[in-house]
Specification:
Oligomer: single chain
Radius of gyration: 27 Å
Strand content: under 5%
Structural class: mainly alpha
Distance between the termini: 61 Å
Largest sheet: none
Length: 288
């Protein structure tokens, strides 16, 4: 009897418990889907309202059974120049921010100076300053320099917000670059600038794309600098166009929502195209 009990206990396989093991995963999936639905509902309602023929969100159906594209026609006709202005400002901000932040990030990552910690602290503090403070300070300076109501003025203003963030992202990536790679290029005769352009920047491609994407999104969604530093209709980003659109066309929400959908498309397309670079730039190493 004793032998039988020992043999049974030793040879019996462990009882599978698939249902209990899967319950937490199913629960997590359900919670994740619920949170995702809550977060995406405003986006869905924006698209739904843009297709409503009535143009009134209060009487809009839950589904656009009879979609109308009249709102998109008005949005393209009236907000098309503003979308183009935002695109030019955002691309200019990306170029200027990367041109300034990439060398600064490499210097902070690879060189050893006593003041580097103080510089990093100053960069962190600069990100904590409220945007309205910077905008008010820039307004007086821009008024003297003639940069009000100009695209270069908005590019510089948006870059003050993007450059510190880009430096921090690229510095974290460039700290993983082995100094021996740059030293080998220097031994072969490359100067410091040539080694940086030909060696460091290609290795840092993922971080460049990631930082450039965030700089684009910062500038594309800017409203505060556009509202403070523009006083005429000569230069008007789409965020400011939507804001002023509400005051004149608030009875026609389909055009307002259509403008919001159109202004969201560049960010969505860029995020989809660059998602693999973003993941690699945020978590991957520079050299394996």
């Amino acid at each position: 009897m004793t032998t039988l009990e020992i043999t049974t206990a030793g040879s019996a396989p462990a009882a599978p418990r698939p249902r209990k093991a899967n319950r937490p995963k199913l629960g997590h999936t359900a919670v994740g889907l619920l949170l995702l639905a809550v977060m995406l509902f405003p986006v869905y309602w924006m698209v739904n309202a843009s297709l409503q023929p009535s143009g009134n969100t209060l009487t809009a159906d839950f589904l656009p059974l009879n979609p109308s594209f009249e709102g998109y026609e008005k949005a393209i006709a009236q907000q098309g120049p503003n979308l183009l202005t935002s695109l030019v400002i955002s691309l200019g901000t990306v170029v200027f921010s990367l041109a300034v932040a990439a060398p600064a990030a490499y210097m902070l990552a690879q060189f050893r100076f006593r003041w580097i910690n103080a510089a990093l602290l100053a960069i962190l503090i600069s990100q904590m300053i409220p945007g309205i403070v910077i905008a008010n300070a820039l307004y007086a300076a821009y008024n003297d320099l003639g940069l009000l109501n100009s695209i270069p003025g908005l590019i510089l203003a948006d870059s003050t917000h993007a450059i510190p963030f880009v430096i921090l992202i690229m510095r974290a990536f460039m700290m993983r670059i082995p100094p021996s790679i740059v030293e080998a290029a220097r031994v072969d005769g490359a100067g410091l600038v040539r080694a940086f352009v030909s060696i460091v920047l290609p290795i840092s491609r993922n971080s460049l794309i990631t930082a450039g994407l965030f700089a684009f999104l910062f500038s594309w969604s800017d409203f505060l600098f556009a509202l403070t530093l523009t006083t005429t209709e000569d230069v008007r980003p789409v965020t400011l166009g939507i804001y002023q659109y509400l005051g004149t066309q608030v009875s026609n929400w389909s055009a307002v929502m259509a403008t919001a959908v159109l202004s969201s498309l560049p960010a969505v397309v860029l995020l989809v195209l660059a998602q693999k670079y973003i993941a690699a730039g945020a978590t991957g190493g520079a050299v394996k």
